[in-house]
Amino acid sequence: xNDKSKSDKEKIMDKHQQIVEAQVRKHxxxxxxxxxxxxxxxxxxxxxxSHMSSLFDYTERALDSKKFSGGHRxxxxxxxxxxxxxxxxxxxxxxxxxxxxxxxxxxxxxxxADKYWKMILNTDKGGLIHHCNKDKRGNYHKNGIMVxxxxxxxxxxxxxxxxxxxxxxKDRGKENKLKGTWPCLAFLVSNRK
Length: 193
Hints:
By secondary structure, the protein is of the alpha+beta class. Helix content is about 35%, strand content about 15%. A hairpin with a 7-residue loop joins strand 2 and strand 3. The model is unreliable at about 175-190 (pLDDT under 50).
């Protein structure tokens, strides 16, 4: 099946699989993290593609500059999908996949994303980076999924990653789009070395 005949869902899931498989080939441990990015409700500035590009660029540069045990490189890869239902602004569902030998905890990613999103939007409003660590009923669940290559639970962890990514591929909310925002299907895949 060529890429033009694939549905948006298939394209999202294929891109996710490519990212995860490439990371697992390169690193013996891979940390898979999902988060949502929102604009403040009262935000009046322009909504542009460059906001999310800048968020990932700043976050990845900061991760690259940190010293982690063993001198491991973070090697962050990401993807994001824009969504808008009834809100004034779109929001973004994002996944970051990093070298799990460098980062074992998703909080460092959340903290940096929060810091840089506030900087980009020139706001001090909190809660714009959602950690995606609660179910619909508000019960806590772990977000960061650690995949260890060659371990007995490797396939189970990869299935969890795929399940987590399936939220990005859902149809609901991708039918609306404000002028100047990303199309409903949008990928941001890191090209940084």
